[in-house]
Amino acid sequence: MGRHFSDSDSEFDGSRSDSSGLSDSGHGADDRRQSPGAPAQGTVGPGGPSRLRAGQTPSGRQAAQPGSGRAAAGGRGEQSTSRGNRATRKAGSGDGFGFEHREARSGRRGVWLWSAAALLVIIAIVGGIAIWKSGVVGGCGDRTPVNIAADPSIRDAVADATSKMSSDSCYDYTVTAVAGADVPGLLTSGDKTPDLWVPDSSQQARRVTTQVRRELDTVSPSIAATPTVVAGTRVGRLSNWVEVMKLDGLRAGNPIDTSTGDAPIVGALAEVDAGKLTNDDLVDAMTVLAVQQNNARLANDNEGTRLNLANTSSTPVVTTEQQLTLFTRTHPGSKLTSSIPADGTVMLDYPLVNTAPSSRSETATAAGKELADTLTSGDGASSITDAGFRKPGDTKGLTVLALKDPSQVDKALRQWQVLGVPIRTLVVEDTSGSMAEKDGDETRAQLTIGASLMGLKLFPNNTEIGGWAFGVNKGGPGQDWKELSPIRRLDATSASGGTHRDELAAAVRAGLAPSELGGGTGLYDTTLAAFKKVQDSYDPSYSNSVIILTDGQNEDPNSITLRQLLSQLKRLEDPARPVLVLTIGISEDADTESLEQIARATGGTSYVAKTANDIQTVFVDAIRARVEAAGR
């Protein structure tokens, strides 16, 4: 997503704009055209919500009313007719109902009266229908708005289905494409929380709701299905998912965003569960895949860009049957073919989940059940199948891998996330006067520079790193920190024409130069500011963290206290935007107790280099532990 998908009038926003990438090709535009001459309706398409006016079908015609509506209208008509008869009796002779009496006197006048009575009945019935439509009798009155966050791969299909819903629906659905990585932020955003969510798999639904500490409320276990496949121009027979993960140059999505990203891991885990592979086979394969992904993943990495790459090269990609179907539809002459490992595939089941606040939960459930019925039958079901999906439960021609204990996936994904999720960190380095002290032939600052440069070499290209220096009033009166370099991808091009990796190395050398050292240590204010900086610019596709290197204790008399710092870190904790603080104490002078408390408050780790010579080893080990932990 740039980083998000959102409709212009949506009541909630995603924070990413990473779409399937297929809409650029124009696919689906014909499916969303209105019938010629149809009245204006809500837009259905990649950029807009799906809406119908009350009382209209998708073609714009007034829909036939349900039985309750006809009964209400008929009742009004009968009342009106009764009033007309009473008025006629008053004008008649007083015996009978008056019509026969007047007809005897004048046949022509009787016919006129019968016509007038019939007209009154018609007017009453039409009036009753109008009243029913306005919600005075029967019907729903104003429609209840329902916001739906849908995985980008199914957004258009859901929007198209809602446009086909009967005009007597009591709900006005708005469908917004939201990547899985952005859903935790929405679920903790208060007013922007969607009423319903369509993730691409039950696994993702469980993982996200657990992350934000919410109970999983499933309205429908599946509204669509599609198997995971391997696509490419030269994809041959595959035995298992470990073999897939070791394919040269393989591209797959980020498991935080989409279940196609973690499908190879889930598939391999199922094979381990069945005794066909060992756990060591799985970990080794994940390590290989992580290295390939981290060094090869582009900034704009989505289903569309990966399929385009596969279509123009020999690069294999993990995708779904549905995404491949859409791609080949819009790319005539494509040479892409698909393959599924002999052991079986992993199905994506697209559940419908109630994510509404408690005040709207009942409404969301009712709206969700109506939507699920539409999506699994009639015109709504055709929207799903026309978009390349299978109907729920359709596994024809497939061997589906399943786990005996689905909770095993959590451990495997935690291992994957350590390896496969790229790092985004702010490195904050002490420039107080004590950093000029020597240990042997080099100062602590010089040793820190060496450790930082060594650490930079360990990070893969898609790592995002920024640098700060800190000391009392380092950034000016009242500010203890100063930016050396912004947080950017290491392979990004700098203003000088080099890479950000080169620019950051130069900034570290300059920031810790002898002329920059001096003053006291402004630890607490700097730590809080760094935490807020990373959290405010949080990127859900990355593991977000702060690394602090210091050789002293807080010496700013005007700063917050340790207790206040820990309290604020606790208050700022957000399960949708987790930020870890890793601390590295340099020498015996470091306030190791405070550093441990700071790291622990955020779920991070604290390291200590007891001598200056240990700085490089500790710093490098801290990075290596983050990069390689799951592979050991």
From TrEMBL:
Composition skew (Low complexity), residue ranges: 17-26, 60-71
SUPFAM superfamilies (UniProt xref): vWA-like (SSF53300)
Transmembrane annotation, as ranges: 111-132
VWFA domain residues: 424-623
Keyword Membrane attached: yes
Stretches for region Disordered: 1-101
Record's keyword terms, sorted: Membrane, Transmembrane, Transmembrane helix
The keyword Transmembrane helix is annotated on this UniProt entry: yes
Protein name in the entry: VWFA domain-containing protein
Organism: Gordonia otitidis (strain DSM 44809 / CCUG 52243 / JCM 12355 / NBRC 100426 / IFM 10032)
Taxon lineage: Bacteria, Bacillati, Actinomycetota, Actinomycetes, Mycobacteriales
